[in-house]
Write a structure and sequence with these properties.
By secondary structure, the chain is α+β, with helices and mostly antiparallel strands. The protein is about 45% helix and about 15% strand. One of its GO terms (biological process) is glutamine biosynthetic process.
Length: about 750
Amino acid sequence: MASSANQARKDAIRDNVLRPSRVVPYPFKDGKPVYTSEFFGENVFGQAQIAKALPKPAYAQFLRQMKGGQTLDKGTADAIAHAVRIWAMDKGATHFTHWFQPQTGTTAEKHDAFLTLKSTHGPSGVEEITAIDAFSGSQLLQAEPDASSFPSGGMRTTFEARGYTVWDTTSPMFVQRGPHETCVLYIPSIFISYNGDALDEKTVLLRSTEQVAKAALAVLALLEPVPPEQEYFLVDRSLYVLRPDLKITGRTLVGALPAKHQQMEDHYFGHIPSRVLATMSESELELYKLGVPVKTRHNEVAPQQFELAPIFEETSLAVDHNLLTMDVLSKVAHRNNLKVLFHEKPFKGVNGSGKHCNWSLSTGSGENLLDPTIKPETNYRFLLFLLATLDAVQRHGGLLRAGIASASNEHRLGANEAPPAIISAFLGEHLTEVLNSIEENRPIKNFSMPNIQTIKLGGRALDVMVSSLPEISRDLTDRNRTSAFAFTGNKFEFRAVGSKQSPSFPMTLLNAAVASSLQDIAEALRKAAGDKPYPSDADKLAVIRQYIAATKNVRFEGDNYSDEWRKEAAKRGLLNITNCPDAFDQIVEEKNSAVLCKLGIFSKSELQSRHYILMERYAKDLLLEANTLRTILAQQVLPAAYEYRASLASSCAQQKQLGLAAGPELRTLNYTTPLVEDLLNWIEKLDEAINKVHEEGHEPSKEARASAKYLLPAMEGARDVADELETVLADKYFPLPKMSELLWF
């Protein structure tokens, strides 16, 4: 068995080398390549297309509806539905679907055909059935999927199956090509229960977005762009299918680290492998047509790890586009005989993948409220919004920690350029000095603005400059890759969000926390103003000083990985939540739940259901990993070890018959046997741990805590022995593709 599995592994490696690259022609016209801007968004039916399809009064009504000014009337809905059907069918669409985000960590869709049957009666009175293509306004606005099979946290039962998807008019419709050159019209939607409860990730995101805007209206009107940078791994698909752990759980449950991994630091920003570049280019081509403004691509730190970053967009659209990016990457990688891995830590010992969410606030006209400008110390508007964000992170750090908690992200946080579980904020040397000087009512020291704004090409320690090179502009802050929430010039980067996660839930919680702090700052400004209609600069400065002092504990400029910081964070009262069940509890913790319910982002029952679903999903994920690991160990690793031991024992016997010393073989056999026995013991411990979780009686909270307590250490112990055994076994006996083969192709 082991030898045939090993042959499959060798065949997969050979196919990987010999397989030709997929060729996808780039758009050309009249023998010249078409500029990206010319086909960008060609598969999107957005506001521009709706404006063309509707009379001006109807389009004005539609815009008012988008802004919450009125409901969408039937005539307008029918006109949009007719126009989008014609547009989509001209592109080859045969079906439409309401595309939504249930609480499964991915998207969902149910396809319905435009085809319908029309019954008419001819002159003779005989009924005639005619096939027609139709799409009504009511079909556009809502659909009824079966809600019973999606996670609801107890809000719905099997016999309460009705749910509704509702068109999110703020996110444009689009078509995606399917098999046989046909297309499907995608309608971005929310998903609610029969009673109106949110069953999805997007409904609460839209609620939080609206609350941030309302909270900030005391100062000015705003929106918030969030472009998530997507990191991911690519592995050869023929090797992937030979790894049950990758297929079932998304990560390697066994596998010794190869001699070369990321320690040479030569993969970061290195030459992109040709097969990967082909996959990236084809993905970008499809994403451009779908109106997704992807901008940057590059190698990440770990081998076979890459990143794709978009241009800023508003939150809801940015989330839709991120989920669409993940979907397109998966499909295109498959066509190129690759497999994309979004798991935060698919390979032990090398960098994990994140989804760095760049979060800012801007006015309706696009002016960034988190732009410090040249003199941040006198830019009171910037300082107030900056401090509102810091206050949100400090008061509701536990809530933000809950938003990034998952069984997969738990392996990534705290190592290899991923931020730790302590949620703190980094501002950089300059802004820290600005806040300190304001709090202490003194001039800014140690900063000369010309030196801050530019860098001369000679470095800090050299007087000799390269005269042919120009001066370059300098950001007000350096970068701190160990910080969970870092200010990066004119925005915050929430680095702790996992690559596998939908950004919806983390962004919902962040928006809620900031909205609450903005409300408090607005109230503080009103109190400071007293009887005056508007607060004076002195009033604003008093509030700014108050919040600078109140948010000092959450600001940290050093190494977030250090033991010193953990001790210091504890002194400051910052939470250090090291496991997912404790993090999930923060959602229903009184301080946090009160804010979420007060803002109307969640109802009490919706929060309880979220807590239930997160606990249940965590326990299921770990049980799935534990059972998969047990199967791999018992059915693949141990048989390979037995076969290798039998070969060694046979060799020892043959050497003895020939009167030769069998010392080397015997030494290897004596080293291998205890490892095999140890692995057998760990399999028994794994069985015991699984049974202990099942003994909790399927109560999600208890199962989740038992999984963290028993399954994680049992899996880690079993893996350590299996990985050591892999380094001992002769290569031809090991059945699974190794890390060296998965990470380098």
